[in-house]
Amino acid sequence: MALALAEQEMESYELASHGEFELVTSVEPCCQCLGVLMWSGVLSLVCGAHSADAEAIGFDERPRSIYWEQELVRRGISVTRDAMRQEAVEILQSYSGEIYNANSQM
Ligand SMILES: [Zn+2]
Of 19, 66, 97, 101, which one has the greatest count of Cβ atoms within 10 A? Predict the structure, then answer.
């Protein structure tokens, strides 16, 4: 959602042509966000909670390659994990909205 809003604001799907962008997230990217990240032009990703933390409250974050971080780095996107992880986990645990893909595991 953040990337879509940034692209809308810049009136472009190529964020890299408008500057250097960093995406700061409360949790590691799910499989959908990972694909968008690779195409967005964002140069840096900072994430707090682990995918397992999101799954612990009911989100289905997979399938995703175990090499997701290496793939981003290979494509020139730096990755910082565990940024304020405990605070990010607490935010996840206080979440009371819809779980968008609960029970979708096959
Ligand atoms: Zn996602």
Answer: 101
pLDDT tens digit string along 42-86?
999 999 999 999 999 988 887 889 999 999 999 999 999 999 999
Q: Ligand 1 centroid vs 57 CA: distance in angstroms?
A: 15
**Segments in the chain forming alpha helices (H):** 2-10, 31-40, 51-56, 68-74, 85-93
Q: Which residues, 6 or more positions from 22, have their beta carbon under 8 angstroms from its beta carbon? A: 42, 43, 44, 45, 46
Ligand 1 mean position to 32 CA, how many Å? 5
At 69, list the tokens. 């971080």
C-alpha 25 to ligand 1 mean position (Å): 10
Measured in Å, residue 29 CA sits from the centre of ligand 1 at: 5
The count of C-alpha atoms lying within 13 angstroms of the C-alpha of 89, restricted to the half-sphere facing its C-beta, is 13
> Going from the N-terminus, what domains does the chain have, and what CATH number goes with each?
20-93 (3.40.140.10)
